[in-house]
Amino acid sequence: MPLIHLTTVIHAPLHRVFDLSRSITLHKRSMEHLKEEAIKGRTSGLIEYDETVTWRAKHLNKMRQLTMKITAMQKDHYFCDEMVDGDFTFMKHEHFFREIANGTVVIDIMEFGTPYGRIGRWFEKLYLKKYMRRLLTLRNNIIKEYAESEKWRVILD
């Protein structure tokens, strides 16, 4: 099963980075190129513990839906979202936040699995893991851009 570990340093306060990471609105902006939209559950604002969001987006030339649920949250330090419905056999994305002298370290750990046996494992290794890592990196870069400038006020104020 693929495991993605991504570390991002953001020169902004912990609380701001944590909230931007939970923002449905900012997530939509980071994935505009995929026409991603929240269609059920929490569709705007900050997602909270035990809430779900269903995303619809075009991935790999097909419109897909993915429902994620926040299964754990420790304010300003951690949250976990897990797939409850979608094309994967499972998906778990853990978000860790640590305050440092000049900002915040964000650590993402994502695990996922695909159906289709050996063909699915082959696809994960050759393509899907890199694709998912690029999406996470893009998302974190957008969070960084907003958190380190005054743009965060458009999302959180």
Content-based structural category: alpha+beta
Low-confidence stretches: none
Mean pLDDT: 95
- How much beta, percentage-wise? 35-45%
Q: What is the CA-CA span between the terminal residues?
A: 39 Å
Which strand order do you get reading across the main beta sheet?
1-7-6-5-4-3-2
The percent range for helix content is: 25-40%
- Overall, the morphology is globular
Number of strands: 7
* H/E series: EHHEEEEEEHH
Per DSSP, the total helix count is 4
Biggest beta sheet summary: 7 strands, antiparallel
Describe the model.
This protein starts with a strand and ends with a helix. Strand 3 and strand 4 form a beta hairpin. The longest helix has 31 residues. The protein contains 4 helices and 7 strands, in the order E-H-H-E-E-E-E-E-E-H-H. The model has no long low-confidence stretch (mean pLDDT 95). 32% of the residues lie in helices and 41% in strands. It is an alpha+beta fold. The protein has a 7-stranded antiparallel β-sheet.
